[in-house]
Design brief:
single chain; 200 residues; mainly alpha; Cytochrome Bc1 Complex, Chain D, domain 2; two-stranded antiparallel sheet; 10 helices; 44% helix; binds heme C
Length: 200
């Protein structure tokens, strides 16, 4: 038999600090867990409407999901599709829209929006050109809605494109529509010579 390398005295010596730690830890109460609190959907007599859940204040922005305004998220309000962008139109927004459009949409709708992208050339059904009068007249919320909910044979892009980017794309489609129907007068004077080839 081998000699016991851990005699009782030594074992006690080791066990004692462990026991002290254990006693200290088991002293912790569940006060934090058991404190008075509202659980989901529980009522409250504190507020007039009897609900413990408080409505979201106007203008609240979620850190996780961004803007929570229903019209911003759905592209529609009680009067129908939004006719104006619900966020400020800027060059940055259009550049972002262009970048996202070229990634997600141009494969089918083509870079110009004429609906003859590479996937369509390979046999996918051809969407209507964004230059079509019906789509030129469509409110900007219409495009947002198509991205969000899909349209006929086109899938929804809601889980790949966050709402802010959907609006940026919708704004960019508007820019594409203008670009294909513009006259020289729509071009800022200082860049006109680049288009006409005339020297300044
Ligand atoms: C895989 C190809 C494909 C991609 C990618 C795609 N679409 Fe489409 N889209 C279509 C087709 C096809 C239709 C027509 C569907 C139908 O009529 O059944 C369509 C329809 C639409 C319509 C409605 C047009 C109308 O006639 O009223 C809009 C708006 C639209 N797409 C925008 C977009 C935007 C914006 C993106 C990028 C976020 C996008 N699509 C990405 C194929 C695509």
């Amino acid at each position: 038999m081998t000699k016991n390398r851990f005699p009782l005295k030594r074992r006690l010596k080791l066990a004692l600090p462990l026991m002290v730690v254990f006693l200290l830890l088991s002293g912790c109460g569940r006060n934090m867990f058991d404190q008075p609190k509202y659980t989901a959907s529980s009522g409250s007599s504190l507020f007039e409407d009897g609900s413990s859940a408080r409505p979201i204040l106007e203008g609240t922005v979620s850190r996780e999901f961004g803007n929570l305004n229903p019209a911003f998220l759905s592209g529609q309000d009680e009067t129908g599709f939004l006719t104006e962008l619900p966020l400020p139109l800027s060059e940055d927004l259009l550049l972002r829209g262009q970048q996202r459009y070229n990634i997600y949409c141009a494969v089918c709708h083509n870079y110009s929006g004429d609906g003859r992208g590479i996937i369509v050339q390979k046999g996918f059904p051809q969407p209507t050109s964004f230059q079509d009068q019906r789509l030129r007249d469509a409110p900007v919320g219409y495009f947002y809605n198509a991205i969000t909910n899909g349209f006929g044979r086109m899938n929804s892009y809601a889980y790949r494109i966050p709402p802010e980017d959907r609006w940026a794309i919708a704004g960019y489609i508007r820019a594409l529509q203008v670009s294909q129907n513009a006259t020289l007068d729509d071009v800022p004077e200082d860049v006109r010579p680049q288009l006409t080839g005339a020297s300044q």
